[in-house]
Amino acid sequence: MSWKLHHGAAIAAVALAMVAGCGVTAGAGSGSAGSDVSGRSLEVIGEWTGEEQANFQKVLNGFTARTHVKVTYTSGGNNVNILLNSRLTGGAPPDVALVPQPGVVAEYARKGMLVPLTGDAAAAVSTNYSDAWKQLGVVDGRLYGFFFKVANKSVVWYRTDDFRAAGARPPSTWDDFIDTSKTLADSGVTPIAVPAADGWPVTDWFENVYLRVAGSDKYAELAAHRLAWTDPTVVRALSVLGGYFGTPNMIEKGATQLTFTQAVADVFGERPKAAMLYEGDFVTGEIGKLGAARIGGDAKLFNFPSIDGSAPAVVSAGDEAVQFRDSPGARALMAYLASPEAARIWAQAGGFLSANSELDLSAYPDDSTRAMAQALVTSSVVQFDMSDQTPQSFGGQAGADEWRLLTDFVAHPGDPAGTAAALEAAATKDYGSRS
């Protein structure tokens, strides 16, 4: 991803023209001028709730203000794919959806459920996204989507008061991370909250450790199941994680019942129970909603630590905008979402990173967010969230096999080889059933 620090008046003018002009009038099947969308209505489905939903609504309001198209947002929460599958089965797809797994998007595309992007929407993606990000929206040679909201899922958040009281410093290596955690524990503070109840945060833990233990090539092979989950690199990564999770007094008790939202509150709320929380940039929105800690003051971050001398690396993720219904309004909305103007609205509200290379970093509200955005550029290795590339039954939805097995591993971390074997059995079943 190529972030540009400039964003002059000419670029803004082009983006506004795309949305307010050609992107608002579109001919059927092409995205060219010819059909007025004013007065029409659209539905968008996404996973966002709470603060994120409110901020995305601001983006949709910006589209409505320009086009007079009413947009209804429906949240599927953590079960967005279940909602989409139900709607598709019932013959009632939304106009547009934001899907958090490119593997799921590929399934939809290959089943003929998605509209390929053409015209103004495709042009906006070509203009505003790097080749690496554009390629993530391509299925079998055709562009079907783009990532509107992305995440840097390789940072650890911490309470500065707990670190100061314990005499702890932000670590840069895994060994230092263990030492810092022990220092916090010795001071009487639980080092870290691990929200295993939701499943996906534990897959993120594994992916960050695996990327640093095995490297980028094996990461990609494992994501595609060209490498078995019983490979020694997987067992090694699980051993690293298991050693940490299994150390007494290291993680907050009841991890398998702890949700992500509650974990944020347990670290940065009025009654903190732990000093650290691993997760992505989107934590900022939840911290802000609590109102008990200030980003950059009470709450700071450090990059996920290096393991065995691994180079700086980032696991990214995102919500891919795709089109299920072909209409001038849907094409106009896709072109708008691919513009820097749409990205800027949410960036200024906080809790957001964009893959849009034309978005000026100054749009982000604080140094922490700008640092996370910059890390996506400066890190030697950037990989997309592994579980989001897998079949839904393995890693793409609540209750998926990987989510379940890794949640169990948090509670019983003493058998990495056994967990690896169970993951391989599940992957063999789930990848084999993917069409």
TrEMBL record:
Keywords: Signal, Transport. The keyword Nucleotidyltransferase does not apply. Residues 1-28 form the signal peptide. Belongs to the bacterial solute-binding protein 1 family. This is ABC transporter substrate-binding protein.
